Amino acid sequence: MRVLGIETSCDETGIAIYDSERGLLAHTLHSQTDIHAKWGGVVPELASRDHVRRAIPLITEVLEKAQLTGKDIHGVAYTKGPGLVGALLTGAMLGRTLGFAWNVPTIGVHHLEGHLLAPFLEPDPPSFPFIALLVSGGHTELVKVEKQGTYEIIGDTLDDAAGEAFDKTAKLLGLGYPGGALLAKLALRGNPDRFHFPRPMVDRPGLDFSFSGLKTFALHTVEANPLDEQTRADIARAFEDAVVATLAIKCRRALQETGYSTLVIAGGVGANKSLRHALHEMCKKQQASLYFPRMEFCTDNGAMIAYVGCQRLLAGEREDLAVEVFPRWALDEISK
Ligand code: KG4
Ligand code: ZN
Fold first, then answer.
1. Binding site membership of 138 for ligand 1 (Cβ less than 6 Å)
2. Could you give phi then psi for residue 9, rounded to 5 degrees?
3. How confident is the model over 114-170, as pLDDT tens digits?
């Protein structure tokens, strides 16, 4: 089965074609970063309008890349939630319309299930069960994944998501938006011994996170020091070290508490090299296996939506023609 995937939940238009036998055939992405950067965050209306402009040319492009036409597509998958309502509606409407025009089934996909199963796009995918750390701009969750479709959230953030904390701290340091990757780059030049940021919630039992205190700690450090180039890098380093150490401690705890021996990292912050390194070290010690999607599939993309849509359509799931999106939708509500 060959499925076209459409991702429009936030500020990236991602389109891909996944074939259940041959794997990923083609994918393409347009990032709206330039549009939103000057506002310091995503402007929902601008996001929706840009998805409308970009999606059809991108679909034409992936079909050409895969040397296919609409007649070769057996199903259409789009992101149904969570995300920005207008942005989601553009993809849902387009997906449904294409399904109707091509006379093939369509399916709405949970964005986080896409992130979670993105490692299955790789040649050496993990096997179930596993623990997934979902770390994106909007989510920081530890998920117990028994099998595809059965997700239990065992840890969650009480306030900011890890990516959000990266972005807010990057803003404090005068970096652009989204700031996660820029902060990580600045941190490379930072001295790890100059500042020490707390590791939130690690001295308490449980698997929940809290990152807003780190952001405040960063603010106080910025206010208490002259903000020269080296100081900015040193703060970036201390902040990144604290987030990475906290995530690694909680992942270790999740593996120990469940007895699982496979860890999957997904979501935009999963692109962070320091986090990847720390989790490698931790998993080595725990004799656990670690899986990441390739860098470009850590952040939002159409390939993960095409993949999940294909699995669900193959399992016989179908939806009627109503266009419905869920801007707020918890991962463990999928099966309900
Ligand atoms: O998964 P994603 O593309 O979008 C959401 O669904 O949120 O994640 C975007 C988040 C942003 O907060 C961004 O700053 C962060 O991932 N991010 C990073 C890195 N690359 C992206 N954070 C830290 N280090 C990075 N290298
Ligand atoms: Zn995402």
1. yes
2. -75, -25
3. 999 999 999 999 999 999 999 999 899 999 999 999 999 999 999 999 999 999 999
3-state secondary structure 205-236: CCCCECCHHHHHHHHHHHHHCCCCHHHHHHHH
Vertex 142: Cα angle to 138 and 144 (nearest 5): 130
Task: Compute how many other C-beta atoms are within 10 angstroms of the C-beta atom of residue 276.
Answer: 17
126-292 in CATH: which number?
3.30.420.40
Residue nearest to atom 20 of ligand 1 (CA): 181
Can you give the pTM of this predicted structure? Answer: 0.94
136: Cβ below 6 Å to ligand 1? yes
Same fold, 2-117+297-333 and 126-292: yes
In this structure, the number of other CB atoms found within 10 A of the CB of residue 142 comes to: 26
89 Cα: distance to centroid of ligand 2 (angstroms): 16
- Find the ligand nearest to 7 CA: 2
- Ligand 1: residue whose CA is nearest its atom 8: 268
pLDDT digits (tens, 9 = 90+) for 295-308: 999 999 999 999 99
**Which residues touch 331 (CB under 8 Å, ≥6 apart)?**
110, 112, 113, 116, 134, 141, 143, 151, 153
Query: What fold characterizes domain 2-117+297-333?
Result: Nucleotidyltransferase; domain 5 (3.30.420)
Q: 267 by DSSP, 3-state: which?
A: coil
